[in-house]
Design brief:
Strand order of the largest sheet: 1-2-4-3-5-6-7-8
CATH topology of the largest domain: Rossmann fold
Order of helices and strands: HEEEHEHEHEHHHEHEH
Number of helices: 9
Number of domains: 2
Strand content: 15-25%
CATH architecture of the largest domain: 3-Layer(aba) Sandwich
CATH superfamily of the largest domain: Alpha/Beta hydrolase fold, catalytic domain
């Protein structure tokens, strides 16, 4: 009897541990999919740097309301660059490092992804649903400002980079793409993020996290990863900017993407830069390289 009780106790303990692991994995997945704590207010507006702008609102095909800014170049340009921020950020976070492009003859369009910034929605999908957001932005531009978007370029930061690559891969209207700190695959970036935040190894917990994400979204978002799409961009050019000391998305991932991308392609590993810090560390050279790329290909 004592042996039976011992076995039952051990089984009970293991069952509780198992339930605890499942609960913890679900909690992590929910934080990724529903980043309410990451919805931060805008920290900067175009008029603070002397730029006139329009507040714009538009809806996605699944009825999520998105908000953004449209800034017209003083040079009456038909070229527009659309900017996409990272997970947990908003449009002002990319605006502060890229608004200089307005004076170089480009119209600028910034918007907040769903569940972030001032946009509606409660679910972030690390790319899958955000593709609906960029499609809605493109449709909005073509319907309301066709004269300004005869040539369209994309810029994406991390998550935004993934969306830019995937959208451009399947949309021939996109002329060129600049990505910064873009990840190689969803699995890798989630694994790295979970390790950095919770110090949890990939196995056995991360497969449960990814499984919950797939179940919640109803699809496998891995198929939208840059590694699956970047080769389809050619012959449209892509410029990969990445911090050499990126702590979330190692620079080796940028090298892998560069290797499988078609020509024309460029890569710049910014010395000393960590994740999303290329503009801050790169300074004037960052602006110069980005300006040269858009001038050449857009």
């Amino acid at each position: 009897m004592n042996i039976l009780y011992t076995v039952l106790i051990i089984v009970g303990i293991l069952a509780l541990i198992g339930l605890g692991i499942v609960w913890f994995c679900m909690r992590i997945a929910k934080k990724i999919l529903h980043p309410m704590s990451k919805r931060t207010p805008l920290g900067m507006w175009p008029d603070q740097v002397g730029l006139a702008y329009e507040n714009v609102t538009f809806k996605t095909t699944d009825k999520v309301q998105l908000k953004g800014w449209f800034i017209t170049s003083p040079q009456e340009s038909n070229k527009t660059i659309i900017f996409m921020h990272d997970w947990g950020m908003n449009r002002s976070d990319v605006f502060k490092n890229t608004y200089f492009l307005c004076d170089l003859g480009f119209n600028l369009f910034y918007f907040d992804f769903r569940a972030l910034g001032e946009s509606g929605g409660k679910t972030s999908s690390l790319g899958y649903l955000e593709l609906r957001d960029i499609k809605a932005a493109l449709e909005f531009l073509k319907e309301t400002r066709p004269q300004f978007c005869e040539k369209i370029g994309l810029y994406g930061l991390s998550l935004g980079g993934m969306v830019a690559i995937c959208e451009a891969a399947h949309n021939p209207e996109i002329a060129c793409v600049v990505t910064e700190a873009s990840y190689y695959s969803l699995r890798r970036v989630v694994s790295r993020w979970v390790w950095m935040k919770y110090h949890i190894p990939y196995f056995p917990l991360l497969p449960l996290v990814l499984r919950y994400i797939r179940k919640n979204l109803g699809i496998s978002p891995e198929q939208y990863s840059p590694k699956e799409n970047i080769a389809k961009l050619a012959p449209r050019p892509v410029f990969l900017i990445h911090g050499r000391y990126d702590n979330l998305v190692p620079a080796a991932q940028a090298k892998l993407l560069y290797r499988i991308a078609g020509e024309p392609k460029e890569i710049w590993l910014v010395p000393g830069a960590k994740h999303n810090k290329c503009a801050e560390v790169g300074g004037f050279e960052y602006k110069q390289k980005m300006a040269d790329f858009y001038r050449k290909y857009l």
